[in-house]
Amino acid sequence: MPRRGTKKPYIPIDGQACQVRDIGICAPFSGEALGALETFKAAERMYAPGRDFLVQGESAGEFFTVLDGWAFLYELLEDGRRQILDFCLPGAFLGFQPDLSAPVTYSAQALTDMSVCVFPRSRVADFVRQHPELGLRMACVAARDQYLAFRHLSNVGRRTARERVASLLLELFFRVRLHSPASSGDKIVIPLTQEHIGDALGLTSVHVNRTLRQLREEKLLTLKGGSLQVLDPDRLAEVAGFESDVAFLRH
Amino acid sequence: MPRRGTKKPYIPIDGQACQVRDIGICAPFSGEALGALETFKAAERMYAPGRDFLVQGESAGEFFTVLDGWAFLYELLEDGRRQILDFCLPGAFLGFQPDLSAPVTYSAQALTDMSVCVFPRSRVADFVRQHPELGLRMACVAARDQYLAFRHLSNVGRRTARERVASLLLELFFRVRLHSPASSGDKIVIPLTQEHIGDALGLTSVHVNRTLRQLREEKLLTLKGGSLQVLDPDRLAEVAGFESDVAFLRH
DNA sequence: CGCGATTTTGATCAATGTCAAAGGTGGTGG
DNA sequence: CCACCACCTTTGACATTGATCAAAATCGCG
Prior knowledge:
Helices cover 37% and strands 22% of the residues of chain A. Chain A is α+β, with helices and mostly antiparallel strands.
């Protein structure tokens, strides 16, 4: 939803306008505050697919907003089992934690080429004191992320494989379409392997494969070569067990 | 850990000092700001066990800090399956969400008699503008809660029943002991049924029962009549798959 | 003492994991 | 342009975990 008809004061960043101004941590700012926020920002950076740009157990000293591309957060158990905690799309805010000097508790890996906006942890407290809006905004974003994490937990804890797969794919479908004005067809680009999907849902990739085949045979969706086509959103939503409201559209 | 040797300026609330001053949302405040915070607070309230004080789908208009007692957050699927999202102990902060007028996305139920501190959602934005510390504090608490939710997700998604049960009980064991100066023995009060445990871990209560029996037979713990005794914390931690660091002790 | 809720146990079943191997696919260097 | 390679997908046979159903034992409490 575009905010009131005001012309948004885009800040040129390295020569181009910020693409996530309206959905990221900076959304509530304008005018002078936006300029100040610009001084808070430490850098802009790019990562290649497969790159771990946050590593569980290491201290990071910075946090991020995703400007472009996909990433995911994950946790690794000692024996190699992996749980994907969240998929991060443009606008996502990650790496912030209460104890700013402590090691981070999860890893983050790029799925595609991506660019991020980097903020230094050290100055966040000072900056929030000067610009209270930012603290509130961070709390709000964190609350929304908590909601997503809770939904994710319900899926994994209390739904069947079929429901989980349908639910995840449909959620990503909506999240992607919401912020890419181009694609409003039934097809989106989704840079995940079946193993990613399994690791997000607490399933093996083999079982994800079988489940996808089933959904394909029922003409609900196609997932092939990084491209997801949702053939019957309504029926798929039913399978996923979504209630009528689609509150998560807010991302 | 007590903050520097300063005498903490306890606010008398309805005649008694706040028990969660150091761990709740109010921790960073003192002096005049603390007085202001007091004016932000709307009420103090008590709930009996079993009482749903937040209901999924309804608008609440307020959020809470737990002063005393236990509660849990949960989500209900249409067919009655329940996922417990989090157990709330004194100091927990719940009910805050980005869109302050939207319906809440989860329910909250008291497990014991409990008392909560109530804040009005409507005034939070104004209040944060006046007291930026609060925004930062809320963001920090939210970040910590996200960490707990992520751990929970990893447990449910990628661990066996045995590991999940060990992990949850050990975590609660530490969380309880951390804030109740009295109990430093190997026994804590834990007001959960096996069904609660199952609903938190994505298991049936029957299977929780069998798993508990196994752990009991291995002399790792006892859970009986609302009382948990941890007989061998080290071996239990091994079963739970905890890495050496016990970062969650921060709650 | 009796009742509802909870725990415990057994027998059986279904969902999902494991292991293994055969296709696909895209990218890279010769 | 082809061949090869790494990685991903697909499928089959079988194993295992945890679910389901059902009933008995126990507990807390009025």
